[in-house]
Amino acid sequence: MKDSKKKNKATKILTTTSLNDLVQIQKWWEKPPEEDNDKSDEEEETKKWKHMEHNGVLFAAEYEPHHVKIKYKGEPIDLTPEQEEVATFWGTVIGSDFAKREIAIKNFAKEFRKVLPEKYKNADFKDFDFTPIREYLDKKKEKMKNKTPEEKKADKEKRQKLMDYYGWALVDGSCEKMANFLVEPPGLFRGRGEQPNTGTIKKRIYAEDITLNIGEDEPVPVCTQPGHSWGEIVSNNEGTWLAYYKVRKNTKYVFLNSSSKFKGMSDYKKYEKARKLKNCIEKIREDYNKKLVDKNMENRQLGVATYLIDRFALRVGNEKDLDDEADTVGCCTLRVEHIKFPENSPNTITFDFLAKDSMRYLNTVKVEPIVYENLKRFVKGKNPGDELFDLVKAQKLNDYLKSLMDGLSAKVFRTYNASFVLQQQLNKKNFKIDDDINEKINYYNSANKDVAVMCNHQRTVPKNYEAKSEQMQKDLQEHQKYLAELKDYVKNFKSNKNKYKDSKNEFVKKVFPSSKEKAQILLKNLEEKVKKKSLKLKDRESNKQVALGTSKLNYMDPRITVSWCKKNEVNIEKLFSKSTRDKFPWAMYTGPDYHF
DNA sequence: CCCGCACAGTCCGTTTTGGGACA
DNA sequence: CTGTCCCAAAACGGACTGTGCGG
Questions:
Q1: Of all nucleotides in the shown strands, which has a C1' nearest the CA of A256?
Q2: Tell me: the pLDDT tens digits for A499-524?
Q3: Which of A515-524, A540-549, A582-591 comes out lowest in average pLDDT?
Q4: CA-to-C1' distance for A20 and B4, Å?
């Protein structure tokens, strides 16, 4: 058979060759991709690869019935494996915040009823008791936890084997890590915010649902799902995806990891584009400022919308399908109800709306008088639910931006603003080489924080945050007290010798050594410790609702960070984790003089 | 008294998968 | 609209840290 021949070839290349031999880093950044000023190259641009092979995707394991019975009005009921699987979906979430949400309950109850035997079709969902399944799952989890080290090691090796087999793709001569290869397992859909589909079922995906993308003459990956075969095999080298399938309306792609050439190059281009914007930002601001006083209302709205995107790093705001998606907005979809004009504060507006991921954007800001006047005018005579920019859609705004700069779109402003702010903040302070490393890191983090706040990157405060904070506060105070005592002890060593005794309270073991030298060493260490604790506490508090990672990974030009680290002799590992460094190989060689 | 070690709880990096932009 | 890719927070899980105990 033709296919089995191909199969062998795939196995041969990707599994018999040592990964170390295959991973040849292509240093594409040594010859950075040019802006395509040469039109004849455009066709080449759309072809992303010549050769691509991989081992396909891995499916979630088949459902294994556990035969634990849920109860209906206190009585255990028999379920088929199919019904039991659905019941188990709920079993895994009961007790969580998710399972308490009204939409989740409503949607799941409907799904559950669909698969139940006829006699329960009109049953009240509240009469079902899933706790037996929950208890079973908890026990299972406990068992997993209590595995012997040998068993755990075996599990790990098994996972690693799968990773070695599925986790890599061969693209144009280099072996690249994949971002994902496991097909999303069946379960409950967890929408964010008031997502209308929260709690509905994500069906099991079969090989027939998968479309694979491989090179024209490459071997077809082995389908490891018994009794099934791939839906479609294509060779589309205008895309960078390796496979896709649909979960309801959403297309799920299998892509390469962010360390790959595909991702790295487009990241590089993204930041170069943002730098290009930096070079013509004055001209662009001039242009949209002119629009603010244009006679044409559409142009005015265009001007104001662009102003908001530039000044406040708003997203563009495409239109959404509210039947399937949560009611969240961006700039062009802002409604009258999302903006307030606080009394007695001239030229001040308050934004309050749900943005991407249903994250609340609440911000009171000063704007130019002409912007203020315009906004007042846009809301006049409209209902709260009416669109603020009724004459401007995302498409139109981006068309306008394109006319100002080649390749400009709304999101470029976010990248530009984030990188610009980081660079500015870092420039503000000059460290001496031997300044405290923790202070340097802290300073960088606070610059990072400014960016995150601007981009509205939030995180939920951890459940035990307050309690932990209080404890840390007390701990710090005790250490400070001890520090003062120890200082005094050292300073008046002889006379104080009997005044202080070693002691231990809840937080700190106080030691007063009998020799002055020992006390001095201790003092020095303690000073370090107190400083560190104090910094950490401050950092923790000011970052409690801010997520620094998103801007670090997606918005701030990594070369700014690398350059700053070199200039200030800070190890990059202090600021970029392993995977972050792997994501930005092209930025790691940046010198200390780089400027965004 | 001090040191090493096990254990638990927390922290933090990584993975997952849902949301959004834009051609 | 669809197709593709970038962005996003939450879930997850392993590493770290600090603590208490025994030798």
A1: C5
A2: 777 776 667 777 777 777 777 877 87
A3: A515-524
A4: 39
The alpha-helical segments, DSSP class H, found in A543-577 are: 549-554, 558-568
pLDDT, one tens digit per residue, over A435-489 is 988 889 989 999 999 999 999 999 988 777 887 888 788 878 888 888 888 888 8
Q: At what angle do helices A297-312 and A394-404 cross, to 10 degrees?
A: 80
CA of residue A137 relative to chain centroid, distance? 29
CA-to-CA dists, residue A224 to A40, A55, A57, A249, angstroms = 43, 10, 9, 25
Closest CA to A221 of A7, A531, A422: A7
C-alpha distances (whole Å) from A76 to each of A119, A128, A439 are: 14, 10, 62
**Average pLDDT, whole number, for chain A?**
88
Task: Estimate to the nearest angstrom the gap between the alpha carbon of A68 and the chain centroid.
Answer: 37
User: Which residues of A are catalytic, by number?
Assistant: 555
Q: Which nucleotides of B are covered by protein (CB under 7 A)?
A: 10-23
Amino acid occupying residue A334: L
Determine contact, residues A408/A402, Cβ cutoff 8 Å: yes
Nucleotide nearest to A97 (CA to C1'): C10
User: CA dist A16 to A22, A87, A172, Å?
Assistant: 10, 43, 18
Q: How confident is the model at residue A156 (pLDDT cuts 50, 70, 90)?
A: confident
From the centroid of its chain, how far is CA A478? 38
A342 Cβ contact list (under 8 Å, min separation 6): A348, A349, A350, A364
- State the residue for tokens 């509205």: A456
Cβ pair A71, A128 in contact under 8 A = yes
pLDDT at A510: 76
A32, A265 contact by CB (below 8 A): no
A376 CA, C17 C1': Å apart = 55
Q: How far apart are CA A445 and CA A540, in angstroms?
A: 11
In this prediction, residue A24 carries a pLDDT of: 53
Tens digits of per-residue pLDDT, A283-318?
999 999 999 999 999 999 999 999 999 999 999 999
Do the Cβ atoms of A178 and A257 come closer than 8 Å? yes
Q: How far is the CA of A461 from the C1' of C9 (A)?
A: 12
Q: Are A256 and A242 in contact (CB under 8 A)?
A: yes
Question: How confident is the model at residue A517, as a pLDDT?
Answer: 78
For residue A22, name the pLDDT band (cuts at 50, 70, 90). low
Q: What is the pTM of this model?
A: 0.89
Phi, psi of A350 (to 5 degrees): -115, 125
Three-state DSSP state, A249? coil
Lookup: tokens for A474: 């007390």
Q: At what angle do helices A261-291 and A297-312 cross, to 10 degrees?
A: 130
Residue A17 is given by DSSP the state S
